[in-house]
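Can anyone check this?
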Amino acid sequence: LQNGHQLHDQQRERGQETGGLRGFPGAEEIAGLADPAFAMPARRRETVRTLARAVAAGELALDPGGDRQETTRRLLAIPGIGSWTAGYVAMRALGDPDVMLATDLAARRGAAALDLPDAPSTLDTHSHRWRPWRSYAVIRLWRAA
């Protein structure tokens, strides 16, 4: 996530300024950036580019209310994107209220701080009682960490 914040800050500076506000560059622009624009390893850079190309081509929609299962399937098909990233995107971009990031280190630390199971498999099992609002539970766990 720290790398995501770093990329966000770097790319925000490339966005268009309108009325004193600076927008984030679009997927097409990100897909076309030269290598030095990405302060990250080559493999991660290609993952970001592949994702940006898919969004720019309309092959992947990251809009609230979109088809969560299809979007997750397409995200997981991109080399370098795993279940944590796909879940995080579903939670944040698609607005899915029921994502449990049981392998997330901060969520596990928060679970331990709240005397909840903190091993990924047991935390995931425990989280079923929070359905269909597990995304909100993850945010609570992060804050407790």
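Reply from J.R.: I decoded it. The chain has eight helices and two strands.
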